[in-house]
Amino acid sequence: MKRLHFYLVPIVIAVAVLVSSGVKNPRLLEVLADAGSSHAAYRLGQHHNDEQDGKTYNPDIALAWFERAAEAGSLDAMHEIGLLHLSGAVDKPSFETGHRFVLTAAEAGHPNAMYTLAFLFEIGMVATRNSSEAERWYLKSLEQGVEEAQIGLYRLHLENQETFGPFKSAKAFKELRKLADKNDAYALLTIGNAHIEGYGVPKNPAKGLALIERAAETMPFAAHFVIAEFHFLGRGEKVEYHKALRHLIMASKHGSPSADLNIGVMYEHGLGVEKDYVKAARYYRKALEQKNLGALTALGILHRNGTGVTQDYDEANRLFHEAADIGLTGGSANVGWMQLHGWGMPVDREKGLVLIETAADEKDYFGTFYMALLLEEGEFVDQDRERALELYRVSADRGNPLARVALRRLGKQI
Fold this sequence. Notes:
Elements: H1 2-20, H2 26-34, H3 38-48, H4 59-71, H5 75-86, H6 95-107, H7 111-123, H8 131-143, H9 148-159, H10 161-181, H11 185-197, H12 205-215, H13 220-232, H14 241-253, H15 257-269, H16 277-289, H17 295-305, H18 313-326, H19 329-341, H20 349-361, H21 365-377, H22 385-397, H23 401-409
Helix pairs in contact: 2-3, 3-4, 4-5, 5-6, 6-7, 7-8, 7-9, 8-9, 9-10, 9-11, 10-11, 11-12, 12-13, 13-14, 14-15, 15-16, 16-17, 17-18, 18-19, 19-20, 19-21, 20-21, 21-22, 22-23
């Protein structure tokens, strides 16, 4: 056995030399991976995870290679596995799985995983929103040389003055202002949003919008979507759906699946455009093809209601369950709504209410609206119109058009 191990030494050395020399031939990389090279397996994962190469791009094949590399301890591969799940790129994504791999890689010292984990804590995706934890991980990744973490840290301090205090908030604004003066798109978006929301500065929506419009020159994908949201939610003087739609179309042309999802919403509800359920379904499918997982619930609702598509409770439930299994609270809320009414499944009011209440507690777009409906009418729960009004407002702030209709019906200002 010792002689066999000694015999393998030249092979191990050869594998190391070939991989480190930048071998790109997939067949040779497969040979090296089969010989035990975790780096070759990782490189194969990268090969199949390149969206620019339409011939080789296949996230599920990439995932399989990354998993092999991760089993051998590759932190790079663990981080990539996390990103594939969190972005919904693979066939059966799981936010929980994605978070677990990112957390494991970050705790083991992977700089970019630290940055990703910080962002997850900042926005409350999968992990509970925790500004202090987000700061800790941004600082760790910054110490490891991840330059992007600096703007993330500035944004965190600026938008959470109640947690970090006025000094950090003011310093963040000052540094972001310097970057914005150099036309840094991320800084322009962050400073613009600060003026719109009043983070660390007096509210000035017009000034904020002007800064975001500057960002559109170099980052149209994101900036046009933010401008659309500004007009859709009426962050200025009033809601302007036609302007929102125009900017969503521009964002869509630059490849934004989130824009496609929201164009679908506008066609579904007739906002700034004639109501057209067929077009709504088309845009939802387009968004879903581009891995915008929010389109699962949107398309499911069309199937539930039979608008723009054939009414099909089974298909609606399939889409809602898929969204819930991934970790989307909107999926869980809609599963609950179906259980509550026994649409395509046996009635289970207890489970249905739990799912809706849980989603509402997390301020979900759908959960808050469904819970508000139940509380307003006293259906399945004790009537509480004051709480219903609060939840309608939360849902409307999240952009739910039906919640806005409910508020207008109740004579309340949006």
